[in-house]
């Protein structure tokens, strides 16, 4: 019997047979796993004789073969071999077979994530509200009732189970697991194993969660489950086993990153909070928002970088607008002279701040400066050099994202901070912010499908010009520009102390640049400290200050570093809080020094919990290739000796001891207190150095002691 | 991908490293002056970068001159202030 | 700097091998050619150091700006881009320098069969270009032995090979006591 149901599309995936399955949640709370007919087309391009060979090599009669003419990003029409497989699984296998046999062919639309493809062809986004028809066996039709750009989308009533363990499994096998299911909390002992498995299965069946949030679920729990109970299936889809993806280390965003093994479920989602970089900041709500706008499955959106999200969005635009998506980009840079390279290959404008303590400084930020430049100036690989080009693929992709985030931020401004909607809206806004943050970098990323280094340079070139224009506007209005950093300015004026005093400047900058600016706040006082190497060298990315409303902002100090022990960070934070109590921080400098001294005494008395002295560092390379092993390499070796597998990019924890370092908590008498004291002293100096009294008067010009040096001109013969 | 040209900060640091033997040979008190001179170039990194010069150190020398000029202007002002406070007159004022 | 003047001929493919060859010497080579006239450079391994190059030029001429204009540069960040750059390189008589040709082919994320095909295409283009263009290539040995064949294939296609001298062990003065 055919039924028409209202509900949400939660996920799509392929079964081992290759067919596509949709996981839907009806408005009545019923969960559906329904297969759907979903043919997939991809293309191969190259020399005609090679295409003819590829045509002959495809012998599967269920695959439709055709000659197609399609345009690439630059509008160049290409003659292609079009291949349409009846299921996504078959299409994947066919692409794999062809690319192995014919590696010299160019492939298009072949590796698009399934969710993106599904969204492009049905118009239904993941997490989107929709109307669907089913005969109980398969999905017959699907109709979108909500766009991914809806400001306040409807919320599917998800059941969430949280699973935490009593210890870090890398160091010690947990003895107990805690399961939070709604208002219920279960404590399950891991031993005896049989009892644990029976209880876990019972809870899983009874609560039937849509989302399992775990700590160490990727690295340990689901692998442990597979080894100890091979027949136990935590999926809702009984046909599917848990899908494991291998652990890996990768180089991205200028650093080595570690991605632990991943365990993906089917018919429900698993998110390991310890293996999802952004989860701490954006939470489940942010992850759902990422999945909604990018088309990546929730489990991928939680674990992948925002760059993958931007790529998925660009792919969606390309599929929708019938632009070919190359599997590998082959377009090289346009030749240029050395002078041209030096002129254009530069980043954003970074000024050198005026060192010292400044009063009543306004921080003015451009809102999403780079995305606005890309949209307003139509910057995309195919539009570069054309003044009257139609909107490019990159601006077409970014515009709705930018509009949604701006609208969310405006909406948030209208709400009271205590409004219960604020945290969820903030999470969604932050998730979108991350996509916007990386979209610029992706223009210059070597593997970006729609990237081009010249577009990347055009964005930074425009941003530098706009910042210089803003400086000139500020100076014309009588402001002193203390600092500029890529997309923010710090300005001062003797008569401007309140937020409204800076409004004319904000309006003038907006008028001049065409990009919205916001006043981050007015600092009661702001410090730009000097570099350690020389007292007159400024540091662009290090400053701290207290806003008029009492907030403290810090950049570049020890407490912002991930490897600073909690005790050191808290000491520094407390010093800043003391200074922030007054509009003249100098008045509290003495109290701050006394506090620092007290903290050092606490350390000397061993009155600090060992947990607060734990250091966390990221392993940058394989420990065996370190010529001079630093603490991270030493920690890696110790863990390796304990049987823990270590990979570059992993975050390792240890304590400084008199013998070196220790990955396990040492007894208090073994701690290297001198080293911790040095760290504390350095953190204290970072804050208080600038408040030191000026040097004695000997260097100042005193007229009564002034004398001209004796003339030592050589005697003429 | 992205930028591959070294930043001006990197370039100045490399130049300083190249001049290490020059610095070493200076007397201690001159080394302090030398460090101050190099530091004054670091205060204008953004401007040096915006000059888009093939040889940025030439522009860095201009930045050092600018800082010296600032100090001269500052000292001139202080001398004028002191002269005024002591009732002295500048010859040009007559 | 070795004297490369005799190799500024067509049908000559000069290969400079080694860690030094792809860094310091490569920039010296580009500067030396720029002093003589226009040249094309494909930087396949982020090896060109513009300020260092300008400094080299300044050592020999006051016309630094003019000489810098002689250098027509193209950067390639993936093996696909290397092939595209070689394919688009004009077969003129101006010299062509390819810096660290194999850097992107050594990238472990590029599957070996695909890397082989792309290298074959690159070598074919180099063969085409050498008919009209003086060609200079810098390469370094692979970090892993699996792709050693790539290095050897480039060396085999060379007319002349310059090898970096093996690093000599650092001599330390014997202790007096």
Which shape of chain B, going by the Cα principal axes? elongated
Q: pLDDT under 50 segments of chain C (min length 5)?
A: none
Report strand order across the widest sheet of chain C.
3-2-4-5-1-6
**What is the number of independent domains of chain B?**
1
Name given to the CATH architecture of chain C: 3-Layer(aba) Sandwich
Indicate how many domains the architecture of chain C comprises. 1
Order of helices and strands of chain C: EHEHHEHEHEHE
Oligomer state equals heterotrimer
**CATH superfamily membership of chain C:** P-loop containing nucleotide triphosphate hydrolases
Q: How much strand of chain C?
A: 15-25%
Tell me the distance between the termini of chain B. 65 Å
Low-pLDDT residue spans of chain B: none
Structural class from helices and strands of chain C?
alpha/beta
By DSSP, the count of extended strands of chain C is: 6
Q: How many helices of chain C in DSSP terms?
A: 6
What is the typical, i.e. mean, pLDDT of chain C? 87
Estimated helix fraction of chain B? over 70%
Strand percentage of chain B = under 5%
In whole angstroms, the N-to-C terminal distance of chain C is: 41 Å
Query: Radius of gyration of chain C, Cα only, in angstroms?
Result: 17 Å
Explain what this protein looks like in three dimensions.
The complex is a heterotrimer of chains A (717), B (94) and C (177). Chain A is built from 18 helices and 28 strands. In chain A, strand 1 and strand 2 (20-26) form a beta hairpin. Chain A is globular, with a radius of gyration of 30 Å. By secondary structure, chain B is an all-alpha fold. Chain B has one domain (8-85). Chain C has six helices and six strands. Chain C is globular. Classes of the chains: A alpha+beta (717), B mainly alpha (94), C alpha/beta (177). Chain A binds chain B through residues 338-339, 341-343, 345-347, 349-352, 441, 444-446, 448, 451, 453, 456-457, 464, 468, 484, 531, 534, 536-538, 701, 703, and chain B through 1-5, 7, 35-36, 38-40, 42-46, 49-50, 52-54, 75, 78, 82, 86. Strand 19 (336-337) of chain A pairs antiparallel with strand 3 of chain C, so a sheet runs across the interface.
């Amino acid at each position: 019997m055919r039924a028409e149901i209202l509900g949400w599309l939660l996920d799509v995936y392929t079964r081992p047979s290759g067919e596509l399955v949709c996981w839907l949640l009806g408005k009545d709370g019923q969960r559906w796993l329904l297969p759907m007919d979903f043919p997939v087309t991809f293309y191969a391009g190259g020399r005609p004789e090679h295409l003819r060979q590829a045509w002959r090599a495809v012998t599967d009669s269920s695959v439709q073969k055709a000659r197609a003419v399609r345009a690439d990003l630059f509008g160049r029409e290409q003659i292609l071999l079009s291949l349409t497989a009846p299921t996504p699984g078959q299409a994947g296998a066919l692409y794999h077979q062809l690319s192995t046999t014919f590696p010299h062919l160019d492939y298009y639309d072949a590796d698009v994530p399934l969710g993106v493809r599904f969204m492009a062809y049905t118009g239904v986004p993941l997490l989107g509200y929709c109307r669907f028809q089913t005969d109980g066996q398969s999905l017959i039709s699907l109709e979108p009732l909500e766009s991914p750009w809806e400001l306040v989308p409807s919320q599917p009533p998800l059941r969430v189970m949280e699973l935490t363990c009593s210890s870090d499994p890398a160091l010690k096998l947990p003895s107990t697991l805690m399961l939070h299911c709604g208002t219920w909390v279960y404590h399950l002992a891991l031993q005896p194993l049989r009892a644990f498995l029976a209880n876990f299965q019972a809870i899983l069946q009874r609560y039937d969660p849509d989302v399992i949030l775990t700590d160490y679920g990727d690295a340990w729990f689901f692998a442990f489950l597979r080894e100890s109970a091979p027949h136990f299936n935590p999926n809702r889809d009984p046909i599917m086993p848990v899908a494991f993806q291998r652990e890996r280390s990768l180089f991205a965003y200028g650093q080595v990153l570690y991605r632990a093994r991943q365990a993906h479920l089917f018919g429900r989602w698993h998110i390991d909070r310890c293996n999802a970089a952004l989860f701490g900041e954006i939470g489940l709500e942010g992850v759902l928002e990422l999945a909604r706008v990018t088309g990546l499955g929730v489990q991928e959106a939680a674990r992948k970088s925002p760059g993958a999200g931007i790529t998925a969005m660009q792919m969606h635009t390309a599929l929708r607008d019938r632009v070919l998506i190359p599997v590998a980009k082959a377009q090289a840079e346009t030749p240029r002279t050395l002078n041209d390279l030096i002129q254009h290959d530069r980043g954003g404008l970074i000024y050198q701040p005026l060192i010292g303590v400044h009063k009543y400084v306004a921080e003015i930020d451009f809102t999403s400066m780079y995305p606005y430049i890309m949209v307003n100036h139509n910057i995309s690989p195919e539009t570069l050099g054309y003044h009257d080009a139609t909107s490019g693929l990159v601006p077409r992709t970014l515009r709705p994202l930018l509009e949604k985030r701006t609208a969310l931020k405006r909406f948030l401004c209208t709400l009271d901070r205590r409004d219960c909607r604020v945290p969820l809206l903030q999470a969604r806004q932050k998730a979108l912010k991350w996509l916007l943050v990386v979209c610029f970098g992706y223009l210059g990323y070597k593997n970006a499908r729609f990237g081009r280094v010249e577009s990347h340079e055009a964005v930074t070139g425009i941003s530098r010009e706009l910042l210089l224009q803003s400086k000139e506007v500020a100076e014309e209005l009588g402001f002193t520009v203390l600092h500029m950093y890529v997309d923010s300015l710090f300005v001062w004026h003797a008569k401007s102390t309140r937020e409204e005093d800076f409004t004319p400047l904000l309006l003038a900058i907006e008028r001049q640049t065409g990009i919205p600016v916001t006043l981050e706040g007015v600092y009661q006082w702001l410090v730009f400290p000097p570099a350690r190497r020389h007292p007159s060298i400024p540091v662009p990315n290090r400053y701290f200050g207290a806003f008029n409303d009492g907030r403290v902002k810090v950049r570049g100090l020890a407490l912002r570093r991930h490897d600073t022990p909690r005790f050191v960070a808290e000491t520094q934070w407390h010093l800043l809080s003391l200074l922030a109590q007054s509009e003249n921080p100098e008045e509290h400098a003495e109290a701050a020094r006394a506090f620092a001294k007290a903290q050092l005494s606490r350390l000397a008395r061993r009155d600090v919990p060992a947990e607060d002295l734990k250091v966390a560092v990221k392993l940058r390379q394989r420990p065996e290739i370190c010529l001079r092993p630093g603490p991270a390499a030493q920690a890696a070796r110790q863990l390796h000796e304990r049987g823990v597998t270590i990979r570059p990019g992993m975050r390792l924890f240890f304590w400084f001891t008199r013998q070196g370092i220790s990955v396990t908590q040492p007894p208090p008498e073994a701690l290297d207190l001198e080293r911790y004291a040095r760290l504390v002293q350095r953190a204290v100096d970072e804050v208080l150095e600038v408040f030191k009294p000026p040097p004695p008067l000997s260097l100042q010009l005193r007229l009564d002691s002034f004398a001209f040096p004796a003339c030592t001109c050589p005697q003429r013969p | 991908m992205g930028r591959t040209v070294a930043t001006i900060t990197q370039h100045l640091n490399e130049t300083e490293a190249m001049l290490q033997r020059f610095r070493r040979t200076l007397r201690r008190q001159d080394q302090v002056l030398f460090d101050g001179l190099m530091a004054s170039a670091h205060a204008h990194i953004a401007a040096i970068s915006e000059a888009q010069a093939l040889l940025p150190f030439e522009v860095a020398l201009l930045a050092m001159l600018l800082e010296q000029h600032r100090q001269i202007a500052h000292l001139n002002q202080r001398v004028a202030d002191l002269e005024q406070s002591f009732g002295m007159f500048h010859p040009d004022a007559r | 700097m070795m004297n490369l003047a005799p190799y500024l001929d067509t049908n000559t493919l000069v290969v400079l091998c080694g860690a030094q060859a792809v860094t310091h010497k490569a920039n010296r080579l580009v500067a030396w050619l720029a002093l003589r006239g226009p040249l094309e450079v494909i930087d396949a391994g982020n090896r060109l150091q513009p300020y260092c190059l300008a400094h080299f030029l300044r050592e020999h001429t006051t016309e630094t700006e003019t000489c810098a204009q002689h250098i027509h540069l193209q950067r390639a960040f993936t093996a696909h881009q290397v092939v595209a750059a070689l394919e688009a390189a004009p077969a003129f008589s101006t010299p062509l320098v390819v810096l660290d040709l194999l850097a992107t082919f050594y990238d472990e994320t590029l599957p070996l069969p695909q890397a082989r095909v792309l290298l074959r295409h690159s070598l074919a283009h180099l063969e085409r270009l050498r008919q009209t263009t003086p060609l200079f290539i810098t390469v370094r040995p692979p970090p892993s032995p699996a792709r050693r064949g790539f290095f050897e294939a480039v060396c085999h296609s060379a007319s002349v090979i310059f090898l970096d001298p093996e690093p000599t062990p650092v001599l330390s003065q014997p202790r007096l006591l």
